Amino acid sequence: MKRTRLLGASLVLALAAACQDQPAAPAPSISAADARARASLASGVQLNRGQIALPAGARVADQMSVTLAGRAINPSDYVCPATTPVIDWYLGEVGRFASQEPAIFELLAVDLLADLIPTYDALLFETTATPQYFGYQGQYTKTLEKTEREVKGFWDIASSDIQLIGMHGTILTNAAHVAATYNALFLLPPGLADLFAATVGDAVRQSKTLNGGNHPFFSFNALSFTTSGGPIPDKIIVGDGVLEGYAALGYGDVAPAAIYAHEFGHHIQFENGYYSDPYATAGSGAERTRYTELMADAMGAYFLTHKRGGTLNRKRVEEFLQVYFQVGDCAFANSAHHGTPNQRMAAARLGFEIADEAANQGHILSSSAFHDLFVAKYPLLIAPDAH
């Protein structure tokens, strides 16, 4: 299983550099020297993002990775935006945290890798045995639960075992959860995970900008998770931060359903073995991931506008996807490459068209029939568009 990390984590160094050019407000001190001393008590222990690996048999879709693959895709063949509204929003939120509280930012992001904890807590430990909520105030809970029921009833795969799990930055103030996650991710001397957890909790509580952990730096992601065995159930995990970002841009009405529908597309791939397709096993890591991501885009769009699916207005869905798919990227050498924004929109439009052009509007294609239509069109979806 390839090693993974959050989008937020991959931007830490860039943010730190950018914030050096911004006037720093007086930073609340968490007794940064004391906190750092506490967090470094185990002689020479240093956390490393590259150490982290998921349990054997696990597969994650959509968690951002910075593992470089061969540059088999020629960037000059494709149109890519220099920036995107949602990434601008995210960078603005995290940039304010980094510039206003540099000591806390460095402690949490660089020394203790605390931005990883909510994701891996949700992946490894959270289940529906405890009530789940979505959004900082739980404002998207009913919408996501309704979408979950509809999507599971729409597609033909076995899905009753897929759990819908929330990802919350507020978990960082729960010392027991944080310590358990540190122990799961890193081989630490006895007692050090408890020390790290106490330090993280103190820093989050003292911060004036992190709102008790309700901040996109800790939960700007959504992902799908499956294992080939073991005690961890299959999951779709939705972070509060990513919902907050799209709501801030005016898409709170459609974002929860669209995000879930896309992530469920990955579970169709898990269940039906589409990660073994030729396009999913040949070429660079970027090319392989692009294939599965574009298929999930098409599957999500098909559900969202189908008369027996989400029944959402196509124009409104397309407006949202224009922004959502800009998180799709031009990282052609990145094994988490999702396809360019134009490719992602082309995949979505294929899903729309399959739903719109069906002779029987009440008929739902099987997942395998949809897959075959997608595979037939795939070479056109990824054709160069810059010429």
Oligomer: single chain
| Major β-sheet annotation | 4 strands, mixed
- Largest sheet: spatial strand order: 1-3-4-2
What class do helices, strands and sheet pairing give?
Answer: mainly alpha
Strand segment count: 4
Low-confidence stretches: 1-27, 64-73, 332-336
Average pLDDT: 83
C-alpha end-to-end distance: 37 Å
Q: What is the 3D shape?
A: globular
Provide a quick synopsis of the model.
This protein has 17 helices and four strands. The chain is mainly α and 387 residues long. It has one domain.
How would you characterize the overall build of this protein?
- Helix content is 50%, strand content 5%.
- α3 (32-39) runs parallel beside α5 (102-111), α3 (32-39) runs antiparallel to α9 and α4 packs across α5.
- It has helices at 7-10, 12-19, 32-39, 85-100, 102-111, 117-124, 141-154, 175-185, 192-206, 216-219, 240-248, 255-272, 278-281, 285-305, 314-324, 341-356, 367-381; strands at 58-61, 163-167, 222-227, 235-239.
- A hairpin with a 7-residue loop joins β3 (222-227) and β4 (235-239).
- It is mainly α.
- It has one domain (7-381).
- It has 17 helices and four strands.
- Residues 1-27, 64-73 and 332-336 have low confidence and may be disordered.
- Strands 1-3-4-2 form a four-stranded mixed sheet, with helices on both faces.
List keywords for this structure.
single chain; 387 residues; mainly alpha; four-stranded mixed beta sheet; 4 strands; globular
